[in-house]
Amino acid sequence: MTMIVRDMNGKTYAFVKGADTSVIPRCESNLSDKDRETVDHVGMLAGKGLRTLCFAMKEMRGDEDWDTIKVEDVESDLTLLGCTAVEDLLQNEVDKCISDFKKANCNVWMLTGDKGETAQQIGLSTGLLSKDVKAIWLTEELLKKRAVTMKTGQTIEDQEEIELLIDGTIMARIISSDNTRDLALPLLLKAKGVVIYRASPA
Q1: What distances in angstroms separate CA 120 from CA 20, 36, 77, one per listed residue?
Q2: Are the CB atoms for 116 and 42 separated by under 8 Å?
Q3: N or C, where is the chain less crowded by C-beta within 10 Å?
């Protein structure tokens, strides 16, 4: 989300709030050593299951044509201001509900806008994922490997139990591409739990 404001001296600023994967690349050219420490902290806090947001800003020229200006012209060359991390407490008995589904032999999927590390910790805290089951990150690299190994019959499906973590962009490809779907479907059907992170309603 971006807000453009003008102060009492007539200077115009753009303030940006969003996920680290969206905000930090737009600050890359201005990141100081201290900022890079902040980026490291974001990953650490997300790994603890906290929901993180990053904030950045830049001063605009002031003579922009606001009717025609593009978003990328506003949300670029930003300066990182900081980040927040909050614990989003689970609803009561979510873990029991998921446990009951799994006892009934239902495969449970979770879709979230959180980053992968946060989503994984939420999956563990709810019982959707288990530390005793191999968690597989279904990445672009893994899909490429599967394109090769499926031809030889040496696939992950031979393992007894698996759980999947999937980036929302990869899931969008699985839905839209027959070839990608064929590569991923055996894993999706086998997985005892699936977490789709960085998912978008669109």
Answers
A1: 17, 24, 31
A2: no
A3: C
CB 148 within 8 Å of CB 142: no
> The tokens 């089951």 sit on which residue?
133
Other CB atoms within 10 Å distance of the CB of residue 150: 14
pLDDT score recorded for residue 143? 87
Tokens 């991390």 label which residue?
Answer: 85
Q: Which amino acid is at 10?
A: G
Q: Which residue's entry shows tokens 């759980």?
A: 163
Closest CA to 13 of 73, 66, 58: 58
pTM (2 d.p.): 0.71
Q: What are phi and psi of 26, to 5 degrees?
A: -80, -5
- The pairing of strands 162-167 and 134-138 is parallel
Q: What pLDDT digit, counting tens, does each position of 155-179 carry?
A: 655 567 889 999 999 999 999 999 8
Enumerate the β-bridge partners of residue 15: 3, 57
